[in-house]
Amino acid sequence: MACKVGIPRALLYYRFSRLWPVFFEKIGCEVKVSDETNKATIDQGAASVVDEVCLPVKIFFGHLDWLSDCHVDYLFVPRIVSIEKKAYICPKVMGLPDMAATAKKDYPPFISPLINNIRGEKDEEYIRELSPYFSCGKKRLKQAWLEAKKEQARYDQKISKEFWIEEGLKDDDPELLNVLVLSHCYVAHDRYLNMNLLEKLKKAKCRVVLPENISDELLERAVKGLKKKPFWTYGKQLLGAAFWFSRMPGRKGAIILTTFGCGIDSFIGNMAERHFKKAGIPYLIITLDEHTGQAGLETRVEAFLDMLRWRRKHYENNFPTYGEYLDTIARDAGIHRAYSCCTSHDK
């Protein structure tokens, strides 16, 4: 009878959605990927871990709970330290197996190989850690792993050349907007978590750009100007996407989509925000948590898109709260400087 392996549809599953399932299928396992996130997923996950962890981690544990009731033989919870050379992953992702071991629910046995590519890829070590769980032999494990990596690479190459856009929408459409959704893949692609934001933007005549739509080569080139390159993979990816997007032609704006409690986003998001200010690119910050309401999110996004379409061509930051552009607007409109004492530059 085939071994049944459960894979949570959360966190880095969205980065390796081809690699892990294909690998287990190649060695003859039955793969069970958890269903998409729903309210019960979040409620169960929040009850399983401490309150201080971020929402995506709570969702991860909600998916573990769901899989535990599916009679799987193993749960795949790798200990991921690094997925590329000279860069680390989020500390909370590193500690998932330990957090799961202290959770409030009994789980099936874990398959938790160490993935640490900080000094380069080490397939042999990964295969060696997996071999005790399966009787197919190291040779077959390695062959399955290499084939799965090729499948993932083909998928990555495909999505790096595609943007999210409504079918039939043309580049010369006067309503077309380019919108960068600056977010981790497990936030951008979890439709329940982000309340189907990507589809909403597509229907609003937006060309949606995600960090994963930009090739690794372009992202690396974009962050070369920094005095010190971020040593977190996703921090580098987010900043690289922000820098690259600022040079993209057309009417555009950025949505910084983050979750409450994300340590990396707390300062990477701030760096992106300062860059957008300097580059003159309008941006909207959305922070998601368990209590975020759909109506409030839709209202903010619709207002942001309306602002992008209504902006004047030469005055992209009209009427900020500190009044910086009031003098120029008044002059061009033929209005006397009688109220210019309200601006921040008049002494």
What percent strand? 5-15%
Topology-level CATH name of the largest domain:
Rossmann fold
* Low-pLDDT runs: 318-347
Q: Domains counted in the coordinates: how many?
A: 3
Helicity level: 40-55%
Rg estimate, integer Å: 23 Å
CATH architecture of the largest domain: 3-Layer(aba) Sandwich
The largest β sheet comes out as: 4 strands, parallel
Question: Given the structure, what is the number of helices?
Answer: 14
Largest sheet, spatial ordering of strands: 2-1-3-5
**Helix-strand topology string:** EHEHHEEHHEEHHEHHEHHEHEHH
Output mean pLDDT.
Answer: 84
Q: Tally the beta strands.
A: 10
Gross morphology is globular
* Structural class by sheet pairing and helices: alpha/beta
- Report how far apart the termini are: 82 Å
CATH class of the largest domain: Alpha Beta
Could you characterize the architecture of this molecule?
The protein has 347 residues and is an alpha/beta fold. It folds into three domains: 4-159, Rossmann fold; 177-310, Rossmann fold (3-Layer(aba) Sandwich); 312-347, no CATH class. Helices cover 41% and strands 13% of the residues. The chain contains 14 helices and ten strands. It has helices spanning 19-26, 39-48, 55-68, 91-94, 96-101, 123-130, 138-159, 185-188, 197-203, 216-222, 233-245, 263-279, 294-310, 326-332; strands spanning 4-7, 30-33, 74-76, 79-82, 110-111, 114-116, 177-182, 206-209, 252-259, 283-288. It has a four-stranded parallel β-sheet with strand order 2-1-3-5, sandwiched between helices. It has a four-stranded parallel β-sheet with strand order 8-7-9-10, with helices on both faces. A two-stranded parallel sheet has the order 4-6. The protein is globular. The model is unreliable at 318-347 (pLDDT under 50).
